[in-house]
Design a protein that fits this description.
Helix 1 packs across helix 6, helix 5 (about 75-90) runs antiparallel to helix 10 (about 160-175) and helix 7 crosses helix 9. The protein has helices at about 5-20, 30-35, 40-45, 50-65, 75-90, 90-95, 105-120, 120-130, 135-155, 160-175. By secondary structure, it is an all-alpha fold. It has 10 helices and no strands. The chain is elongated, with a radius of gyration of 18 Å.
């Protein structure tokens, strides 16, 4: 691993350590730099801002786990795998998902699932006569519902079995709109 990659990984690890103790919106770049033993300029050399760290975590840790399941017949599996991953880093994801700003993990997940729903269910939209902007409205509705369901599960301490809730949601969606 190169020195640059090592520094980037240290920033990610330091961010996760901080966010495991307090909500993401209360974490500053100065705190991240301090916990990593680097200066702010070094942080900014690797990441544009603290939200770029969250995006990096999504692209490098979450997306590789769920991307192959982001298709019509297995999108529910992506949710189950996402929940399992989040449970493995419970404190971090509990605090990371409190932030609802436009660059937050919440918004990244909403946008990712929306795009997947737009693509994966394209034939269903056409079959149902849902065209143009209406497709995005429907996809956004289901995306928000999905991610809010996950956030509720996270906020409740990840105690319930995410697989059961996901299977119920999957059956309901397939039975109603996307038959």
């Amino acid at each position: 691993m190169s020195a640059a990659d090592s520094t980037k990984q240290a920033i990610v690890s330091g961010t996760k350590e901080l966010v495991s103790t307090k909500p993401y919106e209360k974490v500053s770049v100065i705190e991240i730099a301090r916990i990593c033993g680097i200066n702010r300029n070094t942080f900014y050399y690797h990441f544009a801002d603290k939200y770029a760290v969250i995006e990096w975590i999504f692209q490098n840790e979450i997306e590789p786990i769920i991307e192959k399941y982001m298709v019509k017949d297995s999108w529910a599996d992506s949710i189950i795998l996402l929940c399992r991953h989040m449970k493995s880093e419970k404190k971090f994801y509990t605090n990371a998902l409190t932030d609802r700003s436009r660059c937050s993990l919440y918004q990244i997940l909403v946008d990712y699932y929306k795009e997947a729903l737009m693509c994966s269910f394209q034939d269903d939209y056409v079959r149902l006569g849902i065209i143009g902007d209406a497709q995005e409205i429907v996809a956004r509705f289901f995306s928000h519902g999905t991610i809010d369901m996950i956030c509720d599960w996270v906020a409740s301490g990840m105690k319930k079995d995410a697989e059961i809730s996901t299977q119920i949601l999957d059956v309901a969606i397939k039975a109603s709109l996307f038959k």
